[in-house]
Amino acid sequence: MNQNFDIIIVGGGAAGFFTAINIVEKKPTLKVAILERAAEVLQKVRISGGGRCNVTHACFEPNELVKFYPRGEKELRGPFHQFCSGDTIEWFEKHGVELKLEEDGRMFPVSNSSQTIIDCFLNTTKKLGISVLTGQRVQSIFNPEISGENLWKIETQNESYLTEKLIMATGSNPKIWDLLQTYGHAIINPVPSLFTFNIKDSRIKELPGVSAQVSVKVKDTKLTSTGPLLITHWGLSGPAILKLSAWGARILHDKNYQFSIFVNWLNDVDTKEAEQLLKDLKQEQAKKLVAKKSPFELTNRLWESLVLASGISIETKWADLSKVQIQNLAGQLTNASFQVNGKSTFKDEFVTAGGIDLKEINFKTMESKLHRNLYFAGEIVNIDAITGGFNFQNAWTSGFILANAI
Known about the structure:
The protein is α+β, with helices and mostly antiparallel strands. The protein has 15 helices and 21 strands. The protein is elongated.
């Protein structure tokens, strides 16, 4: 027996729920169902932002907002003019969820709990009469253009459904990508984005938890990044590294995650300037021990490690620094080379670069250019962002535009 709906959304995540709610709020007569393969919906929402759910980012200018998307910058400009971060804040407030702003621009529920977002979605879908069907792993999709029917047919392991309009909001799901490929959609090969760098190096081995404001570049590429860097037990992390991994997702994948980076611990001070600063310090602090106290905005532990790596002993006074030692220290401070051997991803919060080719989507409606009444929302398409609430903003915007179009 087939179950009939006006609209079926495959994927019970952020994009799927937001789309469903917006559709039925605009047209309450429509019969809408969300099909989710797992036993629970909204699992990624639950764990995002360390369980707090980073809903969006306080960047309210569409032309600025698109710059946080390594893939999708051009395509999202129009959509963001229709539904941007400010609209997201307003939408959630209207649905009883107040958001708060953190110093770095990220926005979270005032409750500091992703459960607030989950409850909002579950309560609203219930109130609107949207069917949320779990344990529905899609096995096959039959296109009306091929079957001769007017409706899309979706078969799960134990049910079959008919619908006039089909919305795919499955995120990075290889099985679904394979199904869509059989209908002619090109899939841009998925590779990890947002990962940390595995580095074994004596200079940072004893410093997990230490952070600094830095600039980083990848050797033999144009990839550069600035921002906070965090030393971890396995290497380097923090926004500066994550940004680099997002913008360099394909390049670093092609290098098999074996490459060199240069870290400027003084951020925007170049080697020549650093040498001059060290020469001045040699005069000013002649009798003091070099390694004892950091003269820059670096922790004393990190400073001491870089001093030792420059061939300067713990007992050396500023007055006794040789020209070569000053050059070495300036190099360690502004152009420290590290060898990266592999990556670590946050298993729960991974982001993938790849998905449905953006050329095959109409970004005024989020409808497939190849098949009528087939739509896409969220990360199933080849759009991804750096960390900070931007991936969720893409889910909200695509869902809103899709709902409007339908």
